[in-house]
Specification:
- This protein is mostly helical and 53 residues long.
- The chain has helices at residues 4-10, 14-52.
- The protein is rod-shaped and about 65 Å long.
- The termini are far apart.
- This is Transposase.
- It comes from Sphingobacterium griseoflavum.
Length: 53
């Protein structure tokens, strides 16, 4: 993401900003999917450990 000062000084095209935002959304979505997988794995491990007690 461009710095606010850079955008104020030089401006930014809407098309370029949309590309940046879409790329960030894709990154965040992939990160959330990975977090969800990690969370599910931890839940299974906790359940298994509780069963051993």
């Amino acid at each position: 993401m461009p710095k606010a000062a850079d955008v104020e000084e030089n401006g930014l095209s809407l098309g370029e900003m949309n590309k940046i935002l879409v790329r960030k959304m894709e990154e965040m979505t992939l990160y959330m999917i990975q977090l969800n997988k990690d969370n599910e794995a931890m839940k299974k491990e906790i359940k298994m450990l509780k069963a051993k007690l």
